Amino acid sequence: MSGDRSRGMARRDFLTSAALASGIGVVAPWANPLIGNANAVGPAQESGFDPKFALEVTLPLALAAYAVADCNTVPLPPGFVQTAVIKVDVGAGSTTAERHPEVTALAFNALIFGMMGRSAATRTAFVAFRGTVTFDDVITDIGVLPEPYAELNKFGCVHSGFQTVYRLVRPSIVNHLAVACEGCDRLLVIGHSLGAALAVLAAPDIFLNMQPNIQPSLTTFAGPTAGLGDFAKAFNNMIKSCFRVVNFLDLVPYVPPWPYVHVGSPICVDSGGSIDPLWRHSLYAYQAGLEKLNKSTV
């Protein structure tokens, strides 16, 4: 069996087993009408979510966050340019390794977690985080130990594995955000899978602690729950625009289970096609779902 096929089967088994172990893997998509009924377009229409913009800008930027790990120059939406790569800070690893050695090792193995850039024409900057491209990364998604959000006092508790990865890439964002935002008055923060959790953790920190202190607009795809209810409440009070796109039968948005709670507004899509967990979780499935949603709202 090839290495790629073996890893794919391991990821599929892991996603399914993790969701089933949490007690929601099969039932949740049908039990929750808001997420289970992926054909409903009400949330997108009522919330101001623009599926055309998501197809043309935010989803391509999420794809670019993966591609940049393999090459220095990646295709971006028209008008956008890359200004920096989001990398793990080697120096920060000495601190996180003591408390979370396995997660730290996984982050160092991945090393690159996305990219930053801007469109001068639209005065829009972006921070895009990549997600789970290997089975090892998925393990990081399923850790369930909460700890206080490190960047702001009394802001609730978050998933310790996600926060460990964020702490490792945070210096890269601090060092390069101002350049990415030059001449911009809008900031998009985007992520898929693990990258969606990183986007959620980054948003309050970017807004209050990093120049030029632009309130970010979030769009996440296939994101797990990143924090407990106290964090979700504080986040929603601060960040006014946060859309989490959820594909029907994608299992990752259901982990970690309660007491972890989602932030933002859910946007339901249905990619159709295979019910294979890997397909339902992929950005290409989300692209198919957004295309259907876009046609239904025209």
From TrEMBL:
A Pfam family the protein falls into: Lipase_3
Q: Which residues form the Fungal lipase-type domain?
A: 126-258
Q: Which residues form a coiled coil?
A: none
One Gene Ontology term from the biological process aspect of the record:
lipid metabolic process
Cite the PROSITE patterns for this sequence. TAT (PS51318)
**PANTHER family, sorted:** ALPHA/BETA-HYDROLASES SUPERFAMILY PROTEIN (PTHR45856), FUNGAL LIPASE-LIKE DOMAIN-CONTAINING PROTEIN (PTHR45856:SF24)
Which named protein is this? Fungal lipase-type domain-containing protein
